Predict the structure.
Amino acid sequence: VQLQASGGGLVEAGGSLRLSCAASGSIVSINFMGWYRQPPGKHRELVATITSGGSTKYADSVKGRFTISRDNAKNTLYLQMNSLKPEDTAVYYCAYDRPFSTYDPRESAKYDYWGQGTLVTVSS
């Protein structure tokens, strides 16, 4: 599986962006997917995760502003980001577990596949 992330860019504080992460194959059988980010000079951190059943989990810093979703028909993971803040500036990475895996990578972030990252810059 190859992942292609897109949708990053420069936006003013309060603005919105939608990130996409397209997989090269079907995602129907992928149980765990997520978005992570790495702010400048900091470690990578969880943004949001979603299961095949639609269960979601968000970092406290993005709750109420970001929405993770998946479209199995389009083999794509999304992250809708609203009310963006300068502290949201980071490289955003999508991550997928391998199909049919029963291992839950949400705590360890040990996903099998990672996208190349897309830069989001929020100006004040």
Summary: DSSP finds no helices and eleven strands in the chain. The chain has a mean pLDDT of 95. The radius of gyration is 13 Å. The CA atoms of residues 92 and 118 lie 5 Å apart.
